[in-house]
Amino acid sequence: MQFLWVLLTFVTSLCHAVIVPSRTVMPFSAVYSGVRVKSEHVTLSTATLYQNFSEREPSREWEFRGSSKSLNVSHEKFETIRALSDATLRATPGDDAGSFGTAFHIGQGYILTNQHVLSTSRSNTTQCKSLRMQTGDGKDSFDCERVVYCHREMDFCLIKMKSKKPGLFNRNPRQIQTLPRHRLRATRSPDYAGVFAAIGNPAGEGIHYSEGSGLQPYRRNTWLFFAPVHSGNSGGPLINEAGEVVGVVYAQSKYGVNEDGYNMAVPLYRILEELKENIAGSEDLRFFENSLL
């Protein structure tokens, strides 16, 4: 979210000087726009973060901007990226239609996201209000049915979404149960030296995919990772090399994307522990546990 994403005062640099992150494996890569399929590979348009030291507002000090560089990936790689992205949704919070974030589908209309994606003011942990979700290609959208459980401090929500009602301009809306779902791995011991991917809606510019090398435990409820993210990635999945979600992205550090540019996610195993403690015996918990690998 663009209003809560920056948690610390950023280190300043030269105006609009690009920072090349040493731990970035794959930069922000657009999944649904600027994609050119060729016989030998798929070309993706990319973006990066620029630091503008003249900007006095911390939340705007980092700029997400399209790059002149493109990236070639194999057809197999792109198919993997697209499959993961098809289960990732753009989110519009219920109390701020001008803000944006990310969520991801885990099956049967259930999604995971951040509590600050549900409520920009951080005051709402129980009500749907006007929370909306949209597929990455922009063709389908969904409404909130009910908030199953939110944890404000850990910054996550489990929410049940619903399909839109038929209307004059959409007589046959897509059923949310037909969306692909992410696979979940509630591990306590990930491959800390592995490559991890983030998928989200940075700066509200549509679904982007990125990869970074390494993961580090930080606090009980936080892992640090190095795949590039930015305002709008909030609530998106953190994915291991096997394509399994192991955490939910919730913040970007003050260091942007330089070699110290860690970002933050709540581990999925901690979300499972909280759900077991707070919604024990519910059908919602049974579904969540049955979704785990």
Description:
- With 293 residues, this protein is mainly beta.
- Among the domains are: 99 residues, Thrombin, subunit H (Beta Barrel), CATH 2.40.10.10; 88 residues, Beta Barrel (Thrombin, subunit H), CATH 2.40.10.10.
- The protein contains four helices and 19 strands.
- The strands form two sheets. Strands 1, 2, 3, 4, 5, 12, 13, 14, 15, 16, 17, 18 and 19 form a 13-stranded mixed β-sheet that branches.
- A hairpin with a 2-residue loop joins strand 7 and strand 8.
- The longest helix is centred in the N-terminal third of the chain and has 12 residues.
- The N terminus is likely disordered.
In short:
This protein has 293 residues and is mainly β. It is built from four helices and 19 strands.
Order of helices and strands: EEEEEHEEEHEEEEEEEEEEEHH
Largest sheet: 13 strands, mixed
| Cα separation of the termini | 29 Å
The proportion of residues in beta strands is 35-45%
Counting helices, strands and paired strands, the structural category is mainly beta
Query: Looking at this structure, what is the CATH superfamily of one domain?
Result: Trypsin-like serine proteases
Low-pLDDT regions: 2-21
**Mean of the pLDDT scores?**
88
